[in-house]
Design brief:
The protein is an all-alpha fold and 100 residues long. The protein is built from 5 helices and no strands. The N and C termini lie close together (6 Å).
Length: 100
């Protein structure tokens, strides 16, 4: 669970990201470290990045908050069975078993 101070600071950073404004390096480093340690923070940061992409405006992914927030990393097709199997293997962060 995020403290009030952390949550308010992260909300400010996320608003800047979603609006396409420049965010300071110290703030981004802090937000990334927090996102690695807390799944709520990771979701907030992911949503802000998704809102930043105007070309993704009508995408279901934007509203469901699933998938990668970077449209360049979206999967467009499979080249074979091994490619499909690799897609289903999830790269999990170190804290994937942690519960907030």
């Amino acid at each position: 669970m995020l403290s009030t101070a952390y949550r308010l600071r992260l909300v400010g950073i996320c608003k800047s990201i979603a609006a396409g404004q420049e965010v300071g390096l110290d703030d981004m480093i802090w937000a990334e470290k927090l996102a690695k340690a807390n799944t709520s923070a990771r979701g907030m940061l992911s949503s802000a990045r998704r809102l930043r992409n105007p070309e993704d405006d009508t995408s279901f992914l934007r509203y469901l908050d699933i998938g990668n927030s970077d449209p360049r990393k979206h999967k467009r097709g499979f080249s074979g069975a091994d490619d499909i199997a690799d897609w289903f293997k999830q790269k999990r962060s170190d804290d994937w078993r942690q519960r907030d």
